[in-house]
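During the reporting period, our protein records have gained a structure token line. One record among many is quoted in full directly below:
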Amino acid sequence: MAMMEEGARSCLLQSRSSLEQDIRASYLMDHMISDGVLTGDEEDRIRSKPTRKEQAAALLELLLRKDNQAYISFYNALVRESYGDLASLLHNSLPLVSPEAEKSFSDGGTRYVQAVLSEGGVPQRPVVFVSRPALVNRVREKLYRLQKEPGWVTVFGMAGSGKSVLAAEAVRDHALITECFPGGVHWLSVGQLDRSDLLVRIQSLCFRLEQQSQEKDPSSSLHRPPGSLEEAKERLRFLMLRRYPRMFSWTSRSFSSGCRVLLTTRDRSLADCVSGSKSEVAVESGLEEDQALEILALYVNGKPQRLPEQARSIVRECKGSPLVVSLIGALLREFPDRWAYYLHTLQQKKFKRIRKSSSYDYDALDQAMAASIQVLSEEHRELYIDLTVLEKDVKVPAKVLSVLWDLEPEEVEDVLQDFVNKSLLFRDCHHRPYLYYLHDLQLDFLAEMNRSGLESLHTKVVCQYQQRYSQGPPTSGDEECLYWFRFLTYHMAKANLTQELCSLMFSLDWVRTKAQIMGPAHLINDYVEYGTILDKEVRGHFQEFLSLNGHQLEQRPFPDVVQLALSQPDSSEVYRQALLQAQERATRGGLYLDWVNKSSLKSLSRLVVQPHQGSIYSACFSHDGTKIASCGSSKTLRVFKSTSGEKLLEIQAHDDEVLCCAFSPDDHLLATCSSDRKVKVWNVERGTLMRMFEDEHEEQVNHCQFTNTLRRLLLATCSNDKFMNTKLWNINKPSSQNTMFGHLEPVNHCCFSPDDAYLSTSSSDGTLKLWEVSSANEWKSIDVADMFPEQREQTEVMVKCSTWSADGRTIICAARNAVFVFDVETAAMLLEIRTSRLSTVQYCHACPSSNLVAIALSHYAVELWDIETSKKMADCSGHLSWVHGVQFSPDGSLLLSCSDDQTVRVWETKKVHTSSAVCLKRDSDVLFNNGDITVVAADNRNRLQVRGLGWRHTHIHTHNDALQITRHTVRLRNTHTHMQYQTDDLETHTCKTSSPSLAPSPQVWDMSSGELLQDLVCHQGAVLACDVSPDGQLFATTSADKTAKVWSSASWECVRLLDGHQDCVRSCRFSWNGRRLATGDDNGEIRLWNVKDGTLLKICSRDNKDAMDSLHGGWVTDLHFSPDNTVLLSTGGYIKWWNVEKGEALQTFYPTGANLKRIHVSPDFSTFVTIDNIGILYILKKVE
């Protein structure tokens, strides 16, 4: 082993007696162990000595037998522990030949600077050091301002934020010392000293100053040491004012010395009581992640990018605290395999196991934090303890604490200012009013200190809230309101107030108010998080309601929650509360509709989320199943929880539509590709861009996918490029690793085999190709276009996508309206699944845990097939437009689908039922007879369904053409599908009727004789609707030319031209008194006209468009007035009731499907019947 330099060894021997007299070996050994120059056994032997002096002697004896590195480490330890005077004895003999010595002391300063700082006891840079230049420059800027006059620069921050290292670094500057402080710089640590120890420190400083003065002026004499603290202060002030225009570095306590002082402290207000100019520099509580990782890497002699994952977790857990990072780094130097152990220590808040810090006056981290709190007054200390209940990373306004402490807001702000001044609390000044928060370490310490009283502290929060808001929760929407809605349930759960929690969360009023202010995802998350506390059955009712209606609750204006809840099953607690509220509001004139036949319908979706404003082209589960990522035409990428839809991340990802997104195997990365021809890789946790590939694809990139394992992480992409359309990327390299050549048309999809050995590609050239990933060579090619011999020459066959079975033995692909299953080894077709010829397969995905394959179809449906039995197992209906993608969760228990209707739906695989349900077509007729309701409609199997409320339907089998029901018989007709039901008991009192036409000419008929009375050419576009006034004197027509006209039945002349609609006018209806005409267009707008003079009375319209890009969720297809002419009913994407006089919406009913074609109304306007586009029948009755 190398020996210590002779000069260094001699210096140690000469200074031995002084060192033995003063040092505490236990403090110094922590640093030396961290530096790796002392072992644990050596430390134990030294600690076994009975007295402090004997321990010091044993340490020096051991040190004399070690090398230069041990000398340097011992010196640094003296500096860090504020033995500046003793360190100065060793400074001139520091070995300069050691690389470590150069790292420690070659810090950019000149030898003059090193000498000045060493004489003044200023700590040297620690062996492991990462610069914070912005803060250092800020401190130096403040110090330069003290060049001509005395004053104070206060560097403040919480315990462990690196204030002392920062201050020492700031004065390590040749220009600063020579220009501003030619007399030198002196460092004095006084933070935790009692009066006697403080007196000793000041006596020593006065002695050094007088000794230096005597060296310059031999005629001056040394004074006796000051005998009291007051005398010492005066002596120091005299020396500073009269003899030394020097700087003075002071830590933690202050008194007016009349010199230039750089003060590091946790108490920002410490310098308030002194004279002179004052300025401040706030030190952030944590390092940037890269800086913290660099420190850890230096300690373990590695590179930041090669540190284990626990390194980032440690930095995140302590929020980059320089103190904690340095501490753990020093411990890891000796035990480099203890990453997980020290992370666990932090997570479990075992602060006592974190040993003494390198520049600290405490034996453990918890002592440092306790000391910060002890400086508070007793009253403020109790208030500070109340902050234990706060959640990490949560900022609260003063008004929340005003409720908690029952104090006026101004009093609260004064208390918080005191906490902020003492670095016990942080303030976010970017918000008005200010928001306050605790550092994670402070919060962890408070939680550990008050572990036994946590429940009572949370109970206090709940009680104070209930006292302040006894009449109902706040609804202002400000920061205080948001806090209570977000965290009241958390406080109740922590306080073990189960009854109060259930009462709150099982209240429809709470659900309505919170959903309106915060959205439904937070509510769903509460039911998931506190599911073990809540009643399982009732929790299921509320969670299901929110999961299936969450996309509606995101709409603005906010929907009527009571009306939404009336669509829940009759056995649901949600429905029970909604019905009671609807009945009570109906007595006050409210309008509510009960869906009376809903018991026959079972919802299949588990969750419905509307993450984007626009079509959603791709969605995928994370590999742990907890998150879903989605992207689409909005150009954004969004990540949300798979249980609640709560947004976790949203990124403006590309300059054009985002076509695909994919998680990496460890879920740390997300890849996206776009029509902008770029491929990007994102950090999921931070939302930052990690890599962008933008130069190799020349056309839109259609799909991207990571390998299934991390063994060799690659990213595959495919595009519309002519030749170089499939590429493999190593995300750590700037260019592609391999390009697959073979497809001559765009490649729509690519997919790795389960073992990552092969990549499948699906192309518009009609082929499915399999490639060896290792060589990028083509392995097999399957001509899928051959499966369509009758169509191949007419149109091209596009292979949309492919998916591998879980065992990798079969591969499944989609083309046109079919799905094919091929054997991978032989390329033989094993199974063919043909769907409706009117639909195309958009996507397919194989379940990783079963034989199921999910198929996304253009006719808005998702089907599940068993490829072993060749049977369709389920229909998943609910989407309102084309379904672009489907994917099973990793365990196969869930299935997601995404659509042009802007929603992502999550389905429970085991709960979707066999596809035996009969879907009705939208053309129907209804008979209302003394309270009985009979519905007649054709179904999807071309059978006539006759249904009555409360009795089973019957079937009338017909031919395979479209059905129409006329007034007397059931007959076939291949054109219009208008349907009317009539019996001998009902007769029409209108002698003439008109029918719409796709031509610009409506026809008028005599209903008794069947004679054509008039064929009018009246519009420049197709006539879409017509209606006859109740007295038969007028009739109205509407057209695709965006106009409506009123005609005289006597003269066949147009008496009114009604224009102003911005889209096709699709519906019209006269009021029963004939005074008004309502018209509805394809933009969802309804106009009310005065029939007498043609003036516009009202426009019934929402303020903004909704998810269906219409003011009514779709075309306005039908209109009805109430018998008293006060209410107007309209259908489109949903059903609305309007106040005719005001033009304001009274109520909205949201069907499961959309595109309602017609609605039937009972004579008393109390019952309404319609069928949506997915075949669901709605019988709605007004709640009385």
Q: What stands out?
A: Residues 665 and 709 are 5 Å apart (CA to CA). Residues 195-216 form the longest helix (22 residues).
